[in-house]
Design goal:
Blueprint: E1 9-17, E2 21-27, E3 30-35, E4 53-62, E5 65-69, H1 79-88, E6 92-100, E7 103-108, E8 111-116, H2 128-131, E9 135-144, E10 149-153, H3 154-169, E11 178-187, E12 190-194, E13 199-203, E14 224-233, E15 238-242, H4 254-257, E16 263-272, E17 275-281, E18 284-289, E19 311-320, E20 325-330, H5 334-350, H6 357-363
Parallel strand pairs: 3-5, 18-20
Antiparallel strand pairs: 1-2, 1-4, 2-3, 4-5, 6-7, 6-9, 7-8, 9-10, 11-12, 11-14, 12-13, 14-15, 16-17, 16-19, 17-18, 19-20
């Protein structure tokens, strides 16, 4: 293999894992060594195994062995390693010592660096005290005077990690795919849903087939849901979801279930300036235009005459399944009632016993 420089990134494969060491393949005749503690979690479990691919950094020869590290930190972060990390933009682990004027003092091995406030954290900014005492990853943005003047950025690391995360996410979250998520916040315009660490928007109009006036009656923070991805804009990192798209569309059976000139019972779902929307069932609303209402004129305030939730008997004027529109009229207008009353009174005055089905129907 070619001669490695101290701090050089090296991608290879694990050939063995022991109690103390991880051995990696350097070439057919030699192996490299890492301390197993670098791959041990907080519970003492080793998180790596033979055959795994790894990316490591060469830190030099020790007792004839080629030594590597999974991260540049602590005693590994000598001047040579730090300078190489700066030249190759390799992340370095540093300990945030304290807050100082304009930012933070960060310890990189035995060296000290400065991280401005603007370069700490990513989109979700925390109070300065939140970072003090933490070990974080940094990119060295300036390395001067043989390491006496070092400027670092945690934000650059976060941005790189986020970019990789989004690139991975966009391969699985595509328009038309079904995703599972957790509701994290509710707003008047919709809900934000966490899908694997990314927040997607579920618009209020996509929650149900029926009109949703209070989103809290349909969803709750912490609720697990399954939704359909209906739009992605990865350039601006926006994803829109729909619950409604996974529900059966009641309009599929409208032509069989509802007939023109037939009478049905419904409830007023919305009052508009131009008429009333009447719900025949969940997801199926029809419109009674203001011109169909005998007690209303062009300038009438319908909201003073009708209320959402009021029951109403209607007759279907027309059905347009392609546009998903139904035109309605009240089942009985005031003029029809007056005409029917006069007709019945005339029948009673004339004393005729002639059977009239229309009169019998109105008497019921």
């Amino acid at each position: 293999m070619k001669r490695l420089e101290v701090g050089q990134l090296f991608k290879t494969t694990v050939v063995a894992v022991t109690k103390d060491c991880v051995f990696i393949d350097c070439d057919s005749k030699s192996e490299g060594v890492l301390d197993v503690s670098e791959y041990t979690d907080e519970n003492g479990n080793v998180t790596i195994k033979e055959g795994d691919s790894v990316s490591v950094y060469f830190i030099g020869l020790k007792d004839g062995e080629m030594r590597f590290t999974a991260k540049i930190s602590g005693e590994n972060a000598d001047d040579q390693m730090l300078e190489n990390a700066y030249k190759n933009q390799i992340p370095v682990e540093g300990h945030v010592e304290k807050e100082i004027k304009g930012g933070f003092e960060v310890k990189l091995g035995t060296a000290r660096a400065f991280c401005p406030y603007s370069q700490m954290g990513y989109k979700q900014k925390e109070e300065p005290a939140f970072y003090v005492g933490k070990s974080l990853s940094f990119i060295i943005t300036e390395y001067k005077e043989n390491g006496k003047n070092i400027l670092v950025s945690n934000r650059a690391v976060c941005e790189n990690e986020h970019k990789k995360f989004v690139e991975t996410l966009r391969t699985t979250v595509k328009e038309g795919s079904k995703v599972s998520g957790t509701v994290v916040s509710l707003h008047n315009y919709g809900a934000f849903v966490d899908i694997g660490g990314f927040q997607a928007l579920l618009p209020v109009s996509e929650i149900s087939r029926t009109r949703v006036s209070d989103i809290s009656t349909e969803l709750a923070v912490g609720q697990k849901i399954e939704a359909l991805v209906i739009k992605t804009d990865w350039e601006h990192e926006r994803v829109s979801l729909s619950l409604k798209a996974l529900l059966a569309d009641p309009w599929d059976n409208v032509a069989e279930k509802y007939k023109v000139d037939a009478k049905y019972e419904g409830k007023i779902s919305r009052v508009a300036d131009f008429g009333l929307f009447v719900s025949l069932e969940d997801g199926i609303d029809g419109l009674i235009h203001i011109s169909e209402l005998d007690d209303a004129g062009r300038n009438t305030n319908l909201r003073k005459l009708y209320k959402v939730g009021d029951k109403m008997s209607v007759v279907i004027n027309s059905i347009d399944t392609e546009e998903k529109r139904i035109s309605l009229r009240p089942s009985s207008s005031r003029q029809q009632d007056d005409d029917a009353k006069q007709y019945l009174e005339h029948q009673a005055d004339s004393g005729t016993d002639t059977y009239n089905p229309f009169a019998v129907l109105l008497k019921k």
